[in-house]
Each structure stands twice: as C-alpha cells, then as structure tokens.
Write a structure and sequence with these properties.
This protein is of the alpha+beta class. It is built from eight helices and 19 strands.
C-alpha cells in the first residue's frame, strides 16, 4: 500500500493552531518520531497552541481517495510522547466531521495504528482532540510527529484547492487583518464577511486582506473561496472573527511611493546639522563612532554581550558561518551565526552613516566591502530565516541600509548583486510570515516583519514583488502587532522592548 499522506503525493496539511515556531509540514514529510526533539523541535513535529480549546490537524488529499490503515506517530517530548488521553480520527462528509470506527486498533506509547475492515472513502481526514484531552503533562496541547495514511488504490491528482481557516480569531485592530494558507493554482480569492444580514464581498489578489474601513464591532462570520483559472472554487467552511473597536488603524494605500536614493529613515537626516553637532555638543559621541570604525577597531561593536562569540568578537570580514549540523540546534553555533549577522548590521549601518555624514572615501569603501561581502552569503543558508531569525533580520537590514546609502557609488553589476540578495532574503521572509502561523505576542515576528519591510522599501522600484512585500508588512504590523501594545505596561514585548 502507498502512503497517500505524504506531501510528495500532493497532500496538504492544515491545523487549527500553532505553538510558537511550529508548522504543519513535519507531519507528512516521511520522517517518524525515532529521533529526540531536543535541538530540532519544530523541524520534527507539529504542536498546537496551548489553549483550552479543541485542537486538530487535517490532511487534504489530491482528490477523493480510499484508505485501509492510518498510523499516527505522536510527538516526542523529554523522552516520552505526547499521546493524548482523548482523541479520534475523523473524515469530512462535505458538511460535517464524522469519527471513524476501526476494526483493529494497536496502541503503543509512541504511536496508534487503526486498521479498517472496509476501505474508507474521503477527501479529508483529521486527528481531533477535544479541549483538555492531551497527555497529563500537557493537557492543552496536541502534538504529532507524523501522519501516515495507507491506500491500496491511490489516485494521483492535483493538490486540493480548498481553503482551510482557523475556527476563530479575535482582532483588537479594526479594520482586522484576515490571512489564510494559499492554495495551489489560485490566481486570487473571494472573501465574504457576514453579520446581522449584512454580507460584504471582496476580491483580492493574495492570501491576505484588510478592509479599507473599520467594521462594525462584534462577531463576524467569514469565508474564502479561491479564484482558479477555470473559475471560482468552493467556499471554505465558515470561521468567526471577533472584531473590537479598541484600536482603529485604517491603512490607506495608493499614495505616491518615494523614489530615488537614499530614502530609508536611517539615511534621511540633516547632514549639515549633524556635522555641526559632531564638532560641538555631540563631539564625544561622534568620536566614539569614528573610533569604532577605525582600522584599529576590527571587532564588531555588538551591543549585547551575550551575543558575542565565546572566543571574542569577530575580527575583520567574517566568513559566512556554517549552518547547524544535521539541523541540530546548539547554543555555540547559534551564537556564532547571530554574531556574524550582528556584525553585518553594525558595520553596514555605522559605516554608511559615517559616509553619508562626512563624505569620506574611507567610510565609503568600508561600507562597500561589508555590503558586497554579506550580499554574497546564501540567503537561505545559515543567516537565512529558517536558520536563525536574528541573523536573518540583521543581515537583510544591514545590506538594505548600505545599498540605499551607497546606491550612487555602486556599479550596475554591484547593484544587481546586492539587489538580488535583498530580493531573495525578502522572498524567503515573505514565505515564512505568510500565512502567519507565529505567536504575535512574541517579539520575533516583529523584527522579522521589520526586516521584510525595510528590504522591500530599498528595492521597490527594481523588484516588482517588493511592493507586495512592503504592503504586506504594513498590514500585518497594523493588524497583528501594533494593537497588542494596549494600555501602558500591558504587553512585555511591545514597541518599547525593541
């Protein structure tokens, strides 16, 4: 029999929620739970959010299938397994989910195997855990390492185009930001918002949307249908959006975009005024910057001591750090990668600032050397977003700042090299953030979004996708992050944290 759950077969996965750093792709990548999660975590398992709600993870097959056996490999945790105390295997009938009765069930600590007397026909199947049904140690979490569904008559086909929405979300921002996982082949989407007999319908190009004006506060029902080359696809199952009027941040697009360089905030300053201050009231500060940039100060001016390498600060132009061996996270390698990214941000921003302020060739060449060096690093390597997000932010922002400040001093070939590096890093960040499956209460998505927006603004005239990236960064910032600030002291990882 063939495992029709695999992503390589064309099967998609979706879940009700995500614990921070986790995604659904590990549950059907063909790797079970033999290896410890230590140092790998989100690379080997999916975990739901730790909330007192029902949790589920579902598979969407490429068209109707029949299967005879299902094997569920529970996520490993601290030497044990997160096998729930209460769960069921369900199939979707087209209107509702129905629990399956197996002819034979084999229960082991690390897995559950269900065998059926007759083939089960379905397009979607899911593992469902009722609220609080998890293991005693973590009753509010559903965790799975691998789902395997075996069929004696697999039917190959195009991936499912059904949109799956999280059951509900609450938005303190108004208008709210709606986001969902993209479906293969969609050229756009139709979004419907329903409340008290009112239906608002929109057509959008991508898999995210923010209304132009605030909505009436209250509970809205929303659903999404893909627009396919052959016509509209099926509507998703409806979901709920609880919209408050607490924070109103309407976003108006359509204004003229600032062209020319420099244009990023770090380069938009009154040079004459700052030069006067550098020789007057801020002389000591300028001398400290100049000292750091002098040839005798080869180390990286990393402000956070815990992000320095154990053997001392990086010297000169650091080699691109190696990635984690066998994708196994270690604090030593993490510090090395973080320090390399921080060096790029520190040197690119400080040297390009000094050049813009003074016009001195030495600062220009220092900035150019760091810019071109870092632009040669692999955008999806050790300093990429899937490796260490601190370094991904620092490397992208550093080269974006320097590219903007040095634009007139770069050759066409050099511009192309840096522009391609910025675009590749933005593209990877956009894929990472969209669909948004992160925890917005954590500071990391904030600085990830910052990097995407800055990188996109640096190259928007030269890369058509950059406008999409920049506008996405604005909408997710307004719709997910800014509203979390709340009242004074409400949120410990807000704007002031950074």
């Amino acid at each position: 029999m063939e495992n029709i759950a695999l992503a390589s077969f064309g099967t998609r996965a979706a879940a009700d929620s995500f614990l921070g750093w986790y995604r659904t792709w590990p549950v059907h990548d063909g790797k079970r739970n033999e290896l410890s999660e230590e140092g790998r975590w989100g690379k080997v398992r999916w975990l739901s959010a730790s909330t007192s709600e029902d949790h589920w993870i579902q598979l969407l097959f490429p068209g109707p299938q029949s299967f005879e056996r299902v094997e569920i490999y529970w996520a490993q945790e601290n030497g044990g397994f997160l096998k729930p105390r209460s769960w069921s295997l369900e199939v979707f009938t087209g209107r509702y989910w129905v629990a399956l009765e197996a002819a034979e069930v084999v229960e082991e600590a690390h897995r559950s195997v269900l065998t059926f007397a007759e083939p089960v026909a379905a397009e979607q199947v899911r593992v469902f855990m009722p609220a609080g049904g998890g293991p005693a140690a973590r009753p509010t979490v559903l965790g799975i390492a691998e789902l395997e569904v075996y069929s004696a008559s697999p039917r190959a086909g195009a991936p499912s185009t059904r949109v799956v929405l999280a059951p509900s979300f609450a938005s303190r921002a108004n208008p709210p930001w709606f986001n969902w996982a993209p479906v293969p082949g969609a050229v756009g989407y139709r979004v419907a918002l329903l409340r008290d007999g009112v239906t608002l319908t929109y057509e959008v190009a991508g898999n995210e949307f923010m209304p132009d004006a605030p909505l009436e506060p209250g509970t809205w029902v929303w659903k999404v249908a893909p627009l396919l080359p052959g016509g509209p696809g099926a509507w998703s199952e409806p979901a709920f959006a609880e919209v408050s009027g607490e924070f109103t941040f309407p976003v108006a697009f359509g204004e003229a975009w600032l062209s020319g360089h420099p244009r990023l905030p770090a380069a938009a300053f009154d040079a004459a005024r700052l030069r006067a201050e550098a020789s007057g009231p801020k002389k000591a500060l300028w001398e400290k910057i100049a000292q750091r940039l002098s040839a005798s100060q080869a180390g990286s001016p990393v402000p956070m001591e815990n992000m320095r390498r154990a053997e001392g600060p990086l010297a000169g132009l650091p080699a691109e750090p190696p990635g984690f061996e066998h994708q196994y996270w270690t604090i030593e390698r993490w510090r090395e990668i973080v320090a390399a990214g921080a060096a790029v941000l520190d040197w690119c921003s400080l040297s390009s600032f000094a050049y813009a302020l003074t016009g001195e060739a030495a600062y220009r060449e220092l900035a150019r050397s760091w810019l071109l060096h870092a632009a040669g690093w692999d955008p999806v390597g050790s300093t990429g977003i899937e490796s260490v997000d601190h370094a991904a932010h620092d490397t992208l922002v550093g080269i974006a700042y320097a590219y903007d400040a040095l634009y007139a001093d770069l050759s066409a070939e050099e511009r192309a090299t840096v522009r391609n590096a910025i675009a590749a890093r933005c593209r990877a960040l956009y894929r990472y953030l969209n669909p948004f499956e992160n925890d917005p209460n954590n500071n990391h998505p904030w600085f990830q979004t910052t990097a995407l927006g800055i990188g996109a603004l640096a190259i928007w005239e030269e890369e058509p996708e950059a406008r999409v990236w920049a506008e996405f960064a604005v909408r997710i910032y307004v719709g997910r992050y800014l509203c979390l600030g709340g009242i004074d002291g409400e949120w410990h990882e807000g704007s002031d944290y950074w």
